[in-house]
Each structure stands twice: as structure tokens, then as C-alpha cells.
Amino acid sequence: MEGIVRKLHRSNPQVEICLVYLPGGEDFEKLLAGEASNGMTLHELVAEHYALPSVCPSFEAARMEHDGRMVHRAPKTPDDLTPKGKLIFTNDGSHPTPKGHAVWAFVVQKGLDQMRDLGKPGEHPLPSPLIEDHWANATTLPLGDRALLGGTWSQLTAKTGPTVAVEGRSAYDDVPVIFRTDHAGSGLTLRFRGTSIGLKKMTTPDSGVVSIQIDKEPPVKQSLFSFYSKSFSYGGKILPALPEGEHTITWTLVSERPDKQVILTSKNRPGERKRYYRPPRQIRWSLVFGRGSSACGRNPALQAISAWLVRVRFSSRLP
């Protein structure tokens, strides 16, 4: 988060930033007690340091659930209401329904109204960072000709690849070319200068397992299949931080299959494992992302999870 803030203000010192939090239902009791979730706690340190306002619509949602007017999570219905007439805030525990968005918009609008006369337009000073490894120098690049491909690969585009929608949009809108292989032994090698690197992948029900070798270190295996590989979606993992300098990373598809039963029951939803039977032997990659700044130890203050009260809260209820 700090890296995003610094990058925004470095590119345009006049840009206005407001942090908007939407914790899950498991945090509602904390919110009603005047406490923040762990993620909000850390981000509020950034907000305080850079003098940013913040809004948390979930305070209103928590009050509505406590009063019996709303449920945080329930199956989708035509009118986003339960059979007892309660408003359904989300269908999946994370993404608000249209009526949930109305609650969110109501609180955000009240926050903007209260902020309207605060401060003066102008450039925001960029203070010294909270932590040195803040990722403001991170970048995302198309894989393109930056990688050395070995084995058998194909390139998927909107014209040549399958029609794939990710969150209602074409998978090729933001990533015009996706590299795919289902041949064990096929690999991808990247050389870069910096401290961290990762690949953005399209995770699917048939995602497989890769072997990853960093420089001359022994290779390690990583499953590309996850609990969220129920359909086509994007994800990615940053490899462990490396010393500043030039590095060579190779990802190779192996014949080993991920243990889907263990992965799909990791969130205590055993019924999920029955839904996915595709032979998992594929990888799809599209972007390379990483950073080129020096890696430093994290500030202990950011590791200390404490009850940090959100500075902008609203007590008004929906009409």
C-alpha cells in the first residue's frame, strides 16, 4: 500500500487519495467494538503517515447486521433480499451485491461530504518512507520477448484462444497475449536485475505444478492450482526476496499433479472437491512483475497488529 501511495504522489503530487475499507463479516464484531481489522490496522499506519483520509463502509454494514436488517453473506436472489426481507450485503463474503453497493456508496458519499472543506488543493509532500522496501519502484511488464521459452508453447489471443471471461470481462482486455503449455518439461527462463520477481498467471481447474529454480539454488515445486481455481481467474506469486543484482529464474512444468482434495478443503468446504476433475497439466502466463529497489527489513511497527481505530467513521443510517 505504501508503494502505491508513493508511486501515485510521485507521478502526480496533486492527486487525492482516500482509502476505502471493506473488511469481511468475520471482522464485524471487531468493528462494532470500535476496533479495526488487521488489514485496516496496517493501512491506517500508511494513511496516518501520508495524511490520507479513510472510509470504512463496513461499520454501517456491521450495524445493519447487528440490528437484524442485513446479512453479510447469503445466496443470490433476484432482489438481493432474503426470504425474511433482510438485505444481502454479499453473495461470496467479499464482493457487495447491488444493494450492498448502495450501502457502500451511501457511506462513501457522506465521507466525501465531510471531507469537502478539509485541507486545500495543492501538491502533497512526499515524506520519508515508513519502510524501505515499499515497492514504489515495482513495475509490471508484458512477458513478450523478455522470456526464453523452452519446449512446446502456444500463444493465446482474443482471436486464437478460447473465449474466457474473468469477472465479467474478456481475459484478453488487459492481457492481449497469454502463453500456455501443457507439456511436462516445457520451461520459461527470465533474467532480471533487482530483488523480487513473479509471474501473473491465469489459474484454471486444470492448472498444474511447476519446478522453480532461482540462480544455482536447488529447484522447488509450486502448485499453480489453488482454492480459487474454480474458473478462469488471474493470480500471481512473488518469489522470495533476493539480494540486489542480476538473477536468472526458470519455471518448468512437471508431470506431478496438485493434490486438489487438500487444496479445495483448506477452507473447510469439503463439497468443493467434487466439482473439479480435469487433468491438471497446464500453465498460462502473461505478465512479469517485480521490483528493482534494494530489499530491507520490514519496520517492526508494521508487524505489530494492534487495535487501531479508523479515523473516519459515520453513525448515520440508511434512510
Give the overall silhouette: globular
Which residues form runs of ≥5 with pLDDT under 50? 268-282, 292-319
Largest sheet: 6 strands, antiparallel
Strand percentage? 25-35%
Order of helices and strands: HEHHEHEEHEEEEEEEEEEEEHEH
The end-to-end span amounts to 34 Å
- CATH topology type of the largest domain: Jelly Rolls
- Write the CATH homologous superfamily of the largest domain: Galactose-binding domain-like
The percentage helix is 10-25%
Class inferred from helices and paired strands? alpha+beta
How many structural domains are formed by the residues?
2
Radius of gyration: 22 Å
Q: Calculate the mean pLDDT score and round it.
A: 76
The helix count comes to 7
User: What's the total count of β strands?
Assistant: 17
CATH architecture designation of the largest domain: Sandwich
Mind telling me the CATH class of the largest domain?
Mainly Beta
